[in-house]
Design goal:
- By secondary structure, the chain is of the alpha/beta class.
- It folds into two domains: 68 residues, Ribosomal Protein L25, Chain P (Beta Barrel), CATH 2.40.240; 148 residues, Alpha/beta knot, CATH 3.40.1280.10.
- Helices cover 29% and strands 24% of the residues.
- It is built from six helices and eleven strands.
- The strands form two sheets. Strands 8-7-6-10-9-11 form a six-stranded parallel β-sheet.
- Helix 2 links the parallel strand 1 and strand 2.
- The chain is elongated.
- The protein starts with a helix and ends in a 5-residue tail after the last helix.
Length: 231
């Protein structure tokens, strides 16, 4: 991460880094929640790799304080998919996967899924997850917002881009050759879903909850990409 991003007092997303303007809710967050003072550094990004440093002024708006920097997308885009669990666990998973650095987050309706989003509520549910991902990206100083896809049926996972590995205790070791790992529901994948999987990936010998497995998958892929571990 660029040191300037790390040192910024806050990080926000704007429509344009050429003429950065705070949204009302972001201005409230910076001034009332974070209590930033006049002149403190704030990094701004368009969520598509461009960012620049600014400073907050007495009116609560942004003054440009640096040139535009454009960062390329990661060389290997990593993804994690998961069967939608109950309650607020989808929000928690999206938040943590975003902080870890996952590029593509996929929601899945598997055969044994307990939770299936009603078609009339999908847009509202996805809007909520996009807000969660945006806030988590601000906290973690990301300049590329993650893509959130779905809900998809299992047969549609082949169309998400790149090889997909199904999490299974009998699978192989995670590698970036299979940059997307998908996690089944609490009851596991059924036989037909596993038979159609081109790759199976092990996340360990124990049986994990959906949210635990998703975070383990994201952390392992991110560590491989960042070369902080070798498997």
């Amino acid at each position: 991460m660029n040191p300037a991003l790390r040192r910024s007092a806050a990080h926000v997303f704007v429509e344009s880094v050429e003429h950065p303007v705070l949204a009302d809710e972001d201005e409230h967050h910076l001034r009332r929640v974070l209590r930033l003072r006049d002149g403190e550094p704030v990094s701004t990004s368009d969520g598509a790799g461009a960012w620049r440093m600014c400073r907050i002024d007495a009116s609560g708006q942004l003054c440009v304080d640096g040139e535009i920097v454009r960062e390329s997308a990661p060389g290997v885009a990593i993804g994690v998919g998961f069967a939608i669990p109950k309650g607020d666990r989808p929000e928690w998973i999206v938040q943590k996967l975003t902080e870890i650095g996952v590029d593509r987050i996929i929601l899945i309706h598997a055969e044994r899924s307990v939770v299936r989003w009603d078609a009339s509520k999908v847009d509202r549910q996805l809007d909520r997850l996009h807000r969660v991902a945006r806030e988590a990206s601000m906290q973690s100083r990301r300049v590329w917002l993650p893509e959130i896809i779905g809900p998809l049926g299992v047969t549609a996972l082949a169309d998400v881009g790149g090889p997909v590995g199904f999490a299974d205790p009998d699978g192989g070791t995670p590698t970036l050759a299979v940059p997307t790992i998908v996690v089944g529901p609490e009851g596991g994948w059924n036989a037909a879903e596993l038979s159609g999987a081109q790759h199976m990936v092990s996340l360990g010998s124990t049986i994990l909850r959906v949210e635990t497995a998703a975070i383990v998958a994201g952390a392992q892929l991110a560590a491989l990409r960042e070369r902080t571990v070798t498997l």
